[in-house]
Amino acid sequence: AWLDALRRVGSHYVPAIADARLLGMRRCARPVSHDGRPLIGGVLGIEGLWVAAGHGPWGISTGPGSARLLADAILGRAARDPIPAALDVGRFGPPP
Prior knowledge:
The protein is of the alpha+beta class and 96 residues long. It has two helices and two strands, in the order αββα. It has a domain at 29-92.
């Protein structure tokens, strides 16, 4: 039932979805951080490692905003919104 609803709504935006052959279905874990807030930013001490994770079930709605914040940080652009300390990757302390 939910797949039919998804096809119906999706085909409004991408008409080919209505008749697309389904190759498989998967379920995935939706990892969430210990405090329920996503982890966004560079990992201290590991040059070039950037993270946007831990969004839990809200990733589909908050992921695009996280991606914009992260892209601005990676590219050194002046972000419209800086990454808040509440989302900082290092807020739980150094990696083990």
